[in-house]
Specification:
single chain; alpha/beta; Isopropylmalate Dehydrogenase; 3 domains; ten-stranded mixed β-sheet; 12 helices; globular
């Protein structure tokens, strides 16, 4: 059976790591019909009027499954984030990242899933600069809230509906992947209205499923726990900002975020992507680590019902890493000594499939 899948190469190192992943997935035994679309800086350079053309959103919505590379978001605000636009346009409300120690890669023993809600929290992007925040600041001061003069404001959004669907996804995802314990991450001692609502909603969702365990941990305590005893953790569920930070910390324990695959989940769409960014300074140098993108592709295969092909890809990645030759980011002190290039590592994985 042929599966139609959208490919968004991205920009920066995106085209290199997605090309590597596509080559591996094509060698997996699954019959994939790729439909390639451009967005971000690459689309603008090709003459598109906006970084996320409408036809790209429509194609993903129509196909339901996509693999994407990273996109660059300029820090100066000159271009809106393609990643945020995709989440909004496709209602991608939860992100899951698999953080796992692989053979041949130094690091702590880690095998956990980090799931974050992606439409609310501070990352909803509701901000007011100093010159436009004063009216809201006055309203807050009138209610006894200590907002200093000239403050910029960011709004932290939390709703029971948003938290509920994130936890329902997390519970389903945990069951599908054979997990048994969900941990809600919060700072409810400081933010009882927002983080307290997140935790209470999660408890109601998860404890209704009697075969799943539920507990909670403060986000600062989690940072220490991840460093000291990551093997005790199973599935973490977090609001957006905490989840973004803790997922990168988790990635650092297993060799870096170049090792961490992920998926953005919506009601009708699954968008698979590596955890890392576009790293423009490394673009075109054939040195980026494609592991996270290849393993994101394996997750896409599972979504398509190609479990055996996915297992073969995951085993081949593990076998290639166990041989001890890695991309430059996994070499001691990032020296690059004896490192494989992006394409060469993909070839090493394919050799384990054949």
């Amino acid at each position: 059976m042929s599966h139609r899948i959208i490919l968004l190469p991205g920009d920066g190192i995106g085209p290199e790591v997605t090309a590597a992943a596509r080559a591996v997935l094509d060698a997996s035994g699954a019959d994939l019909d790729w439909e390639v679309h451009q967005a971000g800086l690459t689309a603008l350079a090709a003459g598109a009027k906006e970084p996320l053309p409408r036809h790209v959103v429509e194609a993903i919505a129509d196909r339901g499954v996509a693999l994407k590379g990273p996109f660059t978001t300029p820090a100066d605000g000159s271009m809106p984030s393609v990643n945020i636009a995709l989440r909004r346009e496709l209602d991608l409300y939860a992100n899951a990242r698999h953080v796992r120690t692989l053979p041949g890669v130094p690091g702590r023993h880690v095998d956990l899933i980090i799931i974050r809600e992606t439409t609310e929290d501070v990352y909803a992007g509701i901000e007011l600069a100093e010159d436009s925040a004063e009216e809201l600041a006055d309203w807050l001061r009138a209610r006894g809230m200590p907002v200093p003069a000239g403050a910029a404001l960011a709004v932290k959004v939390a709703s029971a509906a948003g938290a509920r669907r994130a936890f329902e996804f997390a519970a389903d995802y945990a069951e599908h992947h054979g997990r048994r314990r969900l941990t809600a991450v919060h700072k409810a001692t400081v933010l009882p209205a927002t983080d307290g609502l997140f935790v209470a909603t999660g408890r109601a969702v998860v404890t209704a499923r009697t075969h799943l365990e539920f507990d909670t941990i403060a986000v600062d305590a989690l940072a220490a726990h991840l460093v000291q005893r990551p093997e005790e953790l199973d599935v973490l569920v977090l609001p957006g900002q905490y989840g973004d930070i803790m997922a990168d910390l988790g990635g650092a324990l297993v060799g870096g975020i170049g090792m961490v695959p992920g998926v953005n989940h919506g009601s009708c769409v699954s968008l698979f992507e590596p955890a890392h960014g576009s790293a423009p300074r490394h673009a075109g140098r054939n040195r980026a680590n494609p592991v996270a993108t290849i393993l994101s592709g394996a997750l896409a295969l599972r979504r398509l019902g190609e479990d055996e092909a996915a297992r073969r890809v995951e085993d081949a990645v593990a076998a290639a890493l166990a041989d001890g030759r890695h991309t430059y980011d996994l070499t001691p002190h990032r020296s690059g000594d004896g490192a494989l290039g992006t394409a060469e590592f993909a070839a090493a994985v394919i050799s384990k499939l054949l």
